[in-house]
TrEMBL record, chain A:
Listed InterPro entries: MBL, RibonucZ/Hydroxyglut_hydro, Xnuc_lig_assoc
SUPFAM superfamilies: Metallo-hydrolase/oxidoreductase
NCBIfam families noted in UniProt: Xnuc_lig_assoc
Keywords (A to Z) from UniProt: Exonuclease, Hydrolase, Ligase, Nuclease
Enzyme's top EC category: hydrolase
Chain intervals for the UniProt region annotation (Disordered): 320-343
Record-given protein name: Ligase-associated DNA damage response exonuclease
Molecular-function GO terms, alphabetical: exonuclease activity; ligase activity; RNA endonuclease activity
EC numbers: 3.1.-.-
From TrEMBL, chain B:
Highest rank taxon of the organism: Bacteria
Lineage of the organism: Bacteria, Pseudomonadati, Bacteroidota, Flavobacteriia, Flavobacteriales
GO molecular function ontology, one term from the record: DNA ligase (ATP) activity
Keyword field: ATP-binding, Cell cycle, Cell division, DNA damage, DNA recombination, DNA repair, DNA replication, Ligase, Magnesium, Metal-binding, Nucleotide-binding
Keyword Amino-acid biosynthesis: no
Name of the protein described by the UniProt record: DNA ligase (ATP)
Classification via NCBIfam families: DNA_lig_bact, PRK09247.1
Record Gene3D superfamilies: DNA ligase, ATP-dependent, N-terminal domain, DNA ligase/mRNA capping enzyme, Nucleic acid-binding proteins
ATP-dependent DNA ligase family profile domain boundaries: 303-435
EC numbers for this chain: 6.5.1.1
GO biological process: cell division; DNA recombination; DNA repair; DNA replication
SUPFAM superfamilies: ATP-dependent DNA ligase DNA-binding domain, DNA ligase/mRNA capping enzyme, catalytic domain, Nucleic acid-binding proteins
InterPro entries: ATP-dep_DNA_ligase, ATP_dep_DNA_lig_pp_1105_fam, DNA_ligase_ATP-dep_C, DNA_ligase_ATP-dep_cent, DNA_ligase_ATP-dep_CS, DNA_ligase_ATP-dep_N, DNA_ligase_N_sf, NA-bd_OB-fold
Record flagged with keyword Ligase: yes
Length: 343, 527
């Protein structure tokens, strides 16, 4: 029997009995938002409901919007449909949305990962009948190493660059990845500098997460002061005039795609660290198992492969739906305007 | 082979050629001599025969990773490289192994003749003892060509630096008919035995493409011109009574062209010729397809020899009376070559001289180029009269000036993911032309678009998939591309009845609707 609780429409995932949308990609009246990345929280909705921590984030990104904050597990009932937000562990303030109606329970994950990254409230398994899951990294080629090992590599890389008299430049999405790196960099090695876009977002996250000190780069920052230290910058600054000023430097990217040899070469960075805010293959399978669900809908990533595996190997009722979520691609392609570049 | 895996990892970690040369030359200075020798062999297309076929590799790897075979295949299509896929999906606990590269290579050579069960056991055990990069490097040794983004030229440069030798001299030493089993690192790199020299070819001199008109080359009397023949570039060696034929890929292909051995009855000893191997069909030249039939077969049958006999269109002389004459000018080498060909018996049909094309001005040469296709060639070669014979691709003395390609507007019908750096994008396309109201496939192409255009087509493919056949997506026939190709020949193997050479996308015809694309009859008109 097909559930009528959540439907995939042209505007997004719609809940007919409540008349609300989850992470819609076209303007709607009432939007329940999982997290602050641009493919999940878009322009033009009349009302945004999201976790307290995500509220200042989307207000920063979208400007003057009508947003309402909600706590983890807090009950939000609309027309007898019970909604609640639960930690997704993807980035600070990211939620899964639980939807319950007449005993039927669905969970929409937005984006998520199982590992505790130290800055986001850790992912929490939720029992449900139906599970709407991302699968950005939904093939068995993706198996993340524990983050401690990756951060050891990153800190060692920084230390070597410093010894060689070079500045280390880490490319990271301004919301989430940048702060996760920041949290685990070893401040004993040197000073951490940030690009303006990253500094602004970090400032907002500092209100609820403890993070090491950073120095924003401005046009008055003397070049000599930065030498040998570390810069966190958005990927779009790669090859920019802004970055060239800090020569000599070495670049690195931290992303799940760095597991592929081709990806690092394509980005033309000197070093790739495999570090993702999305679940890897074992993580996705574990999440599905822990929900105890019977039905799975894969929304973005390798949806066909992932849902086929769930059908054939785990006996679940699984299918792929096309959405306009972009997973890591949107994060990689973050654009930074040139005015935020210097100031 | 930990140090070898580390080398591959280091080479992978940079896009800078200087750094790659540095890493490689450090390896050549520190690794065991036998490992160095194997590294040279692997990076100069001398990998031993594949010990296990890849179907078995996929089956065993998916079993070891506890995933169904279809999921392994899907992952492979996404990752784009078999060795990398195997390295990614198989879990492993790295062990402190002490087996060196050359020992591994010996194991792999022995593996070839083991029963399948033992092959499986060996590979399963070995894969599990590696970390990711060791597993990747090891598996790379037993799949496909050993392509890791290091050209032979770059390897030679690194080796030259590590052994303090001239790069050109070293490049020459590394050529020829050796394997790690027939020589040692020391003999190969430092000494130079008579026996090793006998079959050794010279590095080929390669021409650069001329992008614009040749006016930029200056005084036309300083240059000579010939047709550019569409065959297999080859070097024919006759030394101590033996004929050797080398292809440009530095492959010894004497056994593919046994008729050329007949040259031993009338060539003077100590001669090396540079030219193009072509098929003779009566008074005309065979197509490139005819030539490929000769290369494709393990043994050349008598029938094939009769149907597609070859000869060599020669245009340069590199060795004369046993002496390397590459330093002499083009003019002098040419006149010695003409002298040599005059001495040959009149009835011989194994060598022909590529004629010089007389011209007094660049305009005249341009007119000759316009007639190049009618002369069964693919354009012109322009060579400096004063130049010596170079090594590799060097700008300045040899230019190829190809005729403009043939073009046709075709509809995109199928797409596949690319490989290597394009593995996340659909970049390999199949194109079709109209034939009685239906689209008939005629060519595949994967080059010619900008990265931005590839991304745009990729998005189109993902949104307009109408069917899937394994890795292949069928798409709504909507996009039109101008396809360029070098030549065309009838073919019974293709549904369209024709085969085109070097098809590539010249431009995306966004201004054209699919129904405005060309027909199969338009294409056949080129025949």
């Amino acid at each position: 029997m097909k559930s009528q609780l959540l439907r995939f429409t042209k505007k997004g995932i719609y809940c007919p009995p409540a008349g609300v949308y989850l992470d819609p990609w076209r303007p709607v009246e009432k939007a329940l938002i999982t997290h602050g990345h641009s493919d999940h929280s878009r322009w033009g909705h009349q009302q945004y409901i999201t976790h307290h921590h995500n509220k200042p984030i989307i207000e920063h990104r979208l400007g003057n919007i009508n947003a309402k904050g909600i706590a983890w597990g807090e009950d939000l009932t609309i027309n007898n449909v019970k909604f609640s937000f639960h930690p997704a562990g993807h980035i600070p303030g990211s939620s899964q949305i639980r939807v319950e109606h007449k005993g039927e329970v669905w969970v929409f994950t937005g984006d998520y990962k199982l590992e505790n990254d130290g800055i986001s409230t850790p992912w929490e398994p939720l029992k449900c009948h139906g599970f709407i899951s991302e699968c950005t990294f939904g093939i068995p080629a993706f198996n993340w190493r524990p983050q401690e090992e990756v951060f050891d590599d990153i800190n060692t890389w920084w230390m070597h660059n410093k010894a060689d008299g070079r500045t280390s430049v880490l490319f990271a999405y301004s919301l989430g990845k940048a702060q996760r790196l920041l949290k685990h960099l070893n401040p004993d090695i040197g000073q951490i500098y940030t690009h303006g876009a990253i500094e602004n977002m970090t400032e907002i996250l500092r209100s609820f997460t403890e993070l090491p000190p950073t120095i924003q780069i401005t046009k008055d920052t003397p070049k000599a002061e930065i030498a040998g230290n570390l810069i966190i910058a958005p990927p779009s600054t790669h090859g920019s005039v802004w970055l060239r000023k800090f020569t000599p430097f070495v670049t690195a990217s931290a992303s799940g795609w760095m597991a592929f040899r081709g990806a690092r070469r394509r980005r033309a960075v000197d070093r790739g660290f495999v570090l993702s805010d999305h679940a890897d293959w074992p993580g996705l399978l574990q999440a599905v198992k822990e929900t105890g669900c019977e039905r799975v809908i894969a929304t973005h990533g390798y949806t066909e492969v992932f849902s086929r595996y769930l059908r054939e190997e785990m006996g679940l009722d699984a299918r792929a739906e096309s959405t306009e979520y972009e997973g890591d691609t949107a994060e990689e392609q973050e654009k930074v305007t040139s005015d935020t570049t210097v100031e | 082979m930990k140090d070898f895996a580390l080398l591959i990892k280091d080479l992978d970690s940079t896009n800078s050629t200087n750094k790659k040369v540095k890493y490689l030359s450090e390896y050549f200075s520190t690794a065991e001599p036998k490992d160095r020798l194997w590294t040279i062999a692997l990076l100069s297309h001398r990998r031993p025969k594949r010990p296990v076929n890849t179907t078995r590799l996929r089956e065993w790897a998916s079993e070891l990773a506890s995933i169904p075979l279809w999921l392994f295949e899907e992952s492979y299509h996404i990752v784009g490289d078999l060795a990398e896929t195997i390295a990614l999906v198989i879990p492993g606990e790295p062990e402190a192994e002490t087996i060196s590269l050359h020992q591994r290579m010996e194991e792999l050579i022995a593996l070839r003749s083991l029963p399948e069960e033992e092959q499986k056991e060996y590979l399963s055990n070995t894969w599990m003892t590696f970390d990711h990069y060791e597993r990747f490097a090891f598996t790379k040794l037993l799949t496909g060509g050993f392509r890791i983004g290091i050209s032979q030229k770059l390897m030679t440069r690194a080796l030259a630096r590590a052994t303090e030798q001239e790069e050109d001299i070293l490049a020459y030493k590394l050529m020829g008919n050796w394997t790690p089993e027939t020589t040692t690192f020391h003999d190969l790199v430092y000494s130079d035995s008579k026996e090793a020299q006998k079959s050794r070819p010279y590095p080929f001199y390669l021409a650069y493409a001329l992008e614009d008109a040749p006016d930029q080359l200056g005084d036309p009397t300083e240059w000579m011109a010939e047709y550019k023949w569409d065959g297999i570039r080859g070097q024919l060696i006759y030394r101590d009574g033996e004929i050797f034929v080398w292809s440009r890929g530095e492959e010894l292909v004497t056994d593919k062209f046994p008729e050329l051995e007949g040259l031993s009855s009338f060539l003077p000893d100590g001669v090396v010729l540079d030219g193009e191997i072509l098929v003779r069909k009566g008074n005309t030249l065979g197509s490139f397809n005819d030539l490929q039939k000769r290369l494709g077969r393990k043994t050349v049958s008598k029938k094939l020899l009769e149907e597609n006999p070859v000869f060599m269109m020669v245009y340069d002389l590199l060795e004369w009376e046993g002496k390397d004459i590459r330093q002499r000018s083009q003019k002098e080498r040419r006149s010695l070559l003409e002298q040599l060909l005059r001495q040959l018996p009149d009835q011989q049909d194994l060598l022909a001289l590529s004629p010089l094309l007389p011209f007094n001005s660049w305009e005249e040469l341009s007119a000759l180029r316009d007639g190049a296709r009618e002369a069964e060639s693919e354009g012109l070669m322009i060579k400096s009269r004063q130049a010596s014979y170079g090594v590799g691709r060097k700008k300045g003395d040899w230019w190829k000036w190809k005729v403009d390609p043939l073009t046709i507007d075709a509809v995109l019908t199928y797409a596949m993911r690319g490989h290597g750096r394009r593995t996340n994008l659909f970049t390999d396309y199949t194109f079709a032309l109209w034939d009685q109201g239906e689209l008939v496939t005629f060519a595949k192409a994967y080059s010619g678009l900008s990265d931005a255009e590839f991304r745009e087509v990729d998005r189109f493919v993902k949104k307009n998939t109408t069917d899937r056949f394994g890795p292949v997506r069928q798409v709504t026939p909507e996009l039109v591309f101008e396809i360029a190709f070098e030549g065309i020949a009838p073919s019974s193997r293709h549904k369209s009845g024709v085969a085109v050479r070097f098809p590539r996308m010249l431009r995306w015809r966004k201004d054209k609707k699919p129904e405005e694309a060309n027909t199969l009859n338009d294409l056949k008109a080129f025949l």
